[in-house]
Amino acid sequence: MPDFNEFRFARQVADRYRCEHRELEIEPGEFSAFIPRMVWHLDEPVADAACLPLYFLSQLTRKHVTVILSGEGADEMLAGYYLFQKMLFIERLRMAPGLGGLLSLAGRLVPDGKLHRYLSLAGRPLDRRYRGVSTGFTDEQLRRLCPARRRPGEILDAFARSIFERTKGAHPLNRMLYFDARVYLPGDLLVKADKMTMAWSLELRVPFLDHELVELAAGMPVEAKLDGRTTKRVARAVAARLLPKDVLERPKRGFPVPIEEWFASRLDPFARRSLLSRESSIGGLVDQKEVERMLDRHRDRREDCSDRIWTLLVLEHWKRIFIDAPSIPASGENLLDATS
Q1: Contacts of 225 (CB under 8 A, 6+ apart)
Q2: Nearest 5°: phi and psi at 67?
Q3: Taking each helix axis from N to C terminus, what angle separates 114-121 and 82-94, rounded to the nearest 10 degrees?
Q4: Nearest alpha carbon to residue 285 among 148, 136, 135
Q5: How far apart are CA 87 and CA 179, in angstroms?
Q6: Spatial distance between the Cα atoms of 41 and 199, rounded to a whole number of angstroms
Q7: pLDDT tens digit sequence for 284-298
Q8: pTM value?
Q9: What pLDDT sits at residue 312?
């Protein structure tokens, strides 16, 4: 899809440094067919849709090289996410007498969606607010999905609080960076990178996480990392001498996958077969009427539920493979012989 296609920018960098450049396009049907195999390689239910393009990219890369470099850690060490700006803005609002409570009240009056989420978070302290943003389900959504649990978010709240307590008195930005370094990096990004590359016997190295660079970043002033609207400020200053202007100044993107569009169209039947059938592995753990409501709202484009649908799909296939009937999922080819 055009909004997710970054070929032009990759070509610019490759042309500048005269690199061998290869491109790979994946269709949604290929994604759904390989989800069980991907989950098997992950070993644990990591609900990050970027696993899928990384899996296929690793397959292509392994045909040409055996060791690669990747940028994991740069955003977590040097404040590369726009989310930090939003959280700091909310932190300033909360300092205004009574305003945090009013925003939280407004959040309860706004329907589900991003605005509802951020307004609801405005009345919470940083540990609960930042944890809430990094999870796929809000507490209210979890209550509807798992009605047997009265307070489904309390375990996550306690966990996040235990991490944030170690950074009392530090600048809010550094507290969030510390949380990501202890939770998001080892629990998602590095697991995903390691498992998806090693699925194809591809060695991945993460130079931004060299311990000396991590220590240097931790000691930098906040303004060197995030200054106004400029994220990763010190890294951008270095990159200005190395990258084309179009690449340097374009809006930040992660490793996007158009699951919002796919689950509203071509992958909707696949999601329904997986999650709503009598054979659904997680059918006894969640309220399937709530799952169906979520799928309907997303299909009808009334609400973006793609992250939640993806999370449930990963959990569904993980439970089938590792809990219900441990096995290696079949596929169209022998993936264990990929490097032969």
Answers
A1: 78, 79, 173, 177, 217, 231, 232, 233, 234
A2: -135, 135
A3: 50
A4: 148
A5: 13
A6: 6
A7: 999 999 999 999 999
A8: 0.85
A9: 97
